[in-house]
Amino acid sequence: MSEKNEFEQFLSQVDGVVFHPLTLGFVGFAVLSSVIVFAMNNAKHGKSNPLKFSETLWLNYVYWFAIFFAPILAIIFVSILAMLTQVGFRILSGNTMQGEADNLRWYVLSFVGLLTALGGIIGTPLALIRVHTTERQTKTSEQNLLTDTLNKAIENLGASKAHKRQVGGGTIETTVPALEKRIGAILALERLASNDLQMHIEIMRIITAYLRTEITEFSPASDKKEKTETVPLREDLSVALAVLSRRGEAQRRLENREAFVLELDNTCFANLRILDVSFEGISLNKCLFSNCYIRNVEFSNCSIHVANAFNTRLEQCSFEQTELVNTRFQSCKFSDCDLGAAANIGESSFIKVDFRNCSIPKQFLDTGFWKELTNCWFYSCDLSNLDFEEPEDLETIWGDQFTLHPQTYQGYDPSLDLDTDFFDEELVNIPMERPKNWEPISPHVLNDFKEH
After folding, report:
1. How many angstroms separate the CA atoms of 237 and 232, rounded?
2. Which residues contact 137 (CB under 8 A, 6 or more apart)?
3. What's the pTM value of the predicted model, to 2 decimals?
């Protein structure tokens, strides 16, 4: 009976240690410290900096659980160690050894159980360390594989092959790009960028550098300003542009967060056909678009500064929030293009440009900017962005450089010769749909136009 009382007294001592105010205070301090570390590492100072032990989501949660559970585990470890000490002392004491066999048996079983629990507690952090080491080894192997794949893809971007052709009576051997290898390399880079966002920006730099160099070399550019036949983009270049167009939402968010802009600056697109691609968010500063045919191309959120376009035809293109600054368009044709939402067209010049079925930006109404429009045609364009109520408003703003064709008005005289009666090389012709908010035109207006 006395042995039982002693064992109960021992358990009471253990409870006193575990639930001692100092012990509980230590646990509370550890938990509070963990919360503070978590909060500080997730506080936003310019950029978010979350504390991550692993890129693997579930393993990261395990590590955080281990941090919060560590103080409790430490208390259990100390408690078990204290109990082992007391039980061992009891077993080795003379009273227990000389007492009843049942009492000794209970103490031995308690010692074995506590020793097993102690081994489990010691093994828990060791198991976490082993998991962490294994994960690092796996990540290292994956990174080595990605690096090898990246290096191989970069090597294949410059792949070429020998090409023999008959010239006269002999054979000339030249070196041409190995398109199949280059396309495979570009697609491999796209896959790497989508699978590992950490490599996305680096891969985009590689692809844009490749495009800047190869498009400029491939372009059949001429120093003379004369019309030449356009040629389609080489297949590998089309694939590379398509890769830029297919960037996903996560990739674009990363670019915005890192303030990264894809750059195709100083690229020569002369005499090329560019179809069905997206340059959205790409920098096209100081590019040359001479004798080009551009159709269904997205220029939204582009930066097009100090660029030049001569004798270029643009169809079904969007310029939403595009920065067209100090860019020169000469002898170009815009058809079904959305220019109305352009962010800025300051200091750009339009010389002998034909606008057909286009939305016109509000900046065209500015008196200072209107001086940059020379011999331009606006046919069936959307002028809803221009804030004016009557035709006289346009005449007041644009002065003698503005001609409004009578075909704009209901019931115009079809016998009028527009080229003879209403065209002047120094004037800007604006045939357009008559706005619905204008008052009906009186018959004498047609006579006024005719007398002009």
Report:
1. 10
2. none
3. 0.65
